[in-house]
Amino acid sequence: MSDTVTLHINGRPVQVPQGTTVAAALEIAGQTYSRRSVSHKARGALCGMGVCFECRVTIDNVPHCRSCQTLCVQGMEVVTDD
Amino acid sequence: MTRSRQNWDVLVVGAGPAGMAAACEAAQAGARVALLDSQHTLGGQIWHGEQQHPKSRAARHWFSRVQALDITVFTRTTVVAAFSPQSLLAETPKGPLVFDWHRLILATGARELFIPFPGWTTPHVTGAGGLQSLVKSGWPIQGKRVVLAGSGPLLLAVAQAIKKEGAHVCCIAEQTPWLRLAAFGQGAAAHISKLWQGVDIGLSLLGVPYHCGWWPVRAEGQDLLRRVTLSNGRRERSIECDVLACGFGLVPNLKLASLLGCAGGGPFVSVDSHQQTPREHVYCAGELTGIGGVDAALVEGRIAGLCAAGQLDRARTLFPRRRSWHCFQDKMAQAFGLQEALKSLPDEHTVVCRCEDISYGQLVSHANWQDAKLQTRCGMGSCQGCTCGASLQFLLGWSRASERPPVLSTSIKTLIGEETGH
User: Fold this and answer.
1) How far apart are CA B334 and CA B259, in angstroms?
2) Does the distance separating the beta carbons of B139 and A47 come in below 8 Å?
3) Interface pTM, i.e. ipTM
4) A4-79: CATH number
5) pLDDT tens, position by position, B202-243
6) I need a labelling partner for B228 at 20 to 30 A (CA). Which of B38, B59, B396, B408 fits?
7) Are residues B237 and B120 in the same domain?
8) Chain A: residue nearest B388 by CA?
9) Quick one: B257 and B321 in the same domain?
10) Strand runs labelled E in B113-235
11) Which residues constitute the domain of residue B381?
């Protein structure tokens, strides 16, 4: 089994070590925010433990996934807000 | 759709140190035990990601005990509701599951208290424990300039951990004034193991400025943090940095305890000497009963596990050790109590409810949490008030109204089903 996985973040491939969360993969890819708030401000991971929901993204077409609680999987498609 | 149902002698919710210790003692005493946690692995926040390679002797001991004993572990399993007096509904990776229990042990731990200040919603402003969790899960920290601010020994532990990973720790801003801290240092000397831990951390942080009596007042940056301003109430200093990690202490995760009607009205769950809550057969251990750290959590968890399995005599032998850690806990609470000045950190434009973008100015005129919630939608977003509820409790003294199910955002699919218990 390979010790890295490749996923797509906003359509761009990113290779990360196994066991990396999506929140960490966003940062590795230089995507420093995950969503826009109701008044369109950039927001990123805050609590790191699945409580605050600030790190949410769309994963494989499922919206509102907490990126800090989701491990990267080969071929995963992650979409953040613009 | 049908829900599966399972029956357990002892059900433990939360697999941090307290929950792991509780499950082990109950299983050792012969009870059929299930241990639930919402994370991927055991260990809670403090031992997050250490299941394969524990970093401390205590972690190694408890991970191997959980593995060796007959304990059924459910990870990625989140309790969302209580359907009947002795059953809980949980969301698991395989779908919804109902857990019937004879004895229930709650060890749901704590989360960080966030105090809103201008700019705190800027990306790269994180929790202190939050940053540590992110780094443990692969978040790149090497070469980043980090300011740590807030209160308590967690700041030091996080500084040590991220420095090891190659972060440049610019400084640590501890809100506690130096004199109060010095008094605590002397008092803590009685707890030798903690003292050595402190010395170890101290040595590894040589050269990192530690500013006592300072706190963050402003974070700046468009879409990304660039600068932090600290204050001691008289002077300000600004620091260019990449990450600001704030930790103003911990607040217990009381939602499930409240839902089960055993939280009382106070900041913590009150328990008797057997760790039993006012509700019979429901026990609590760890940070839910008071912020005491890993050692207090372990001994409370052991006592709860033993009592839930009917081993009262064995539990009693642990009472002196629990007393000693509670003593330490009281000293910590005294030393790191938050300064009044922190209550004026948010200005009228500072966002308090991050889910709904509700500012402090919109909230402060309301009478209480319930009123604010109904008028502004504060606390009604994805996090269900977990973040702003604790902030507003600190800032305005607002306590939360009672909990209603579901305690966490969940799918309709989980909530409907043939078997509703009614």
Assistant:
1) 30
2) no
3) 0.97
4) 3.10.20.440
5) 666 778 999 999 999 999 998 999 999 999 999 999 999 999
6) B396
7) yes
8) A52
9) yes
10) 125-127, 145-150, 168-174, 210-212, 215-220, 227-231
11) 340-396
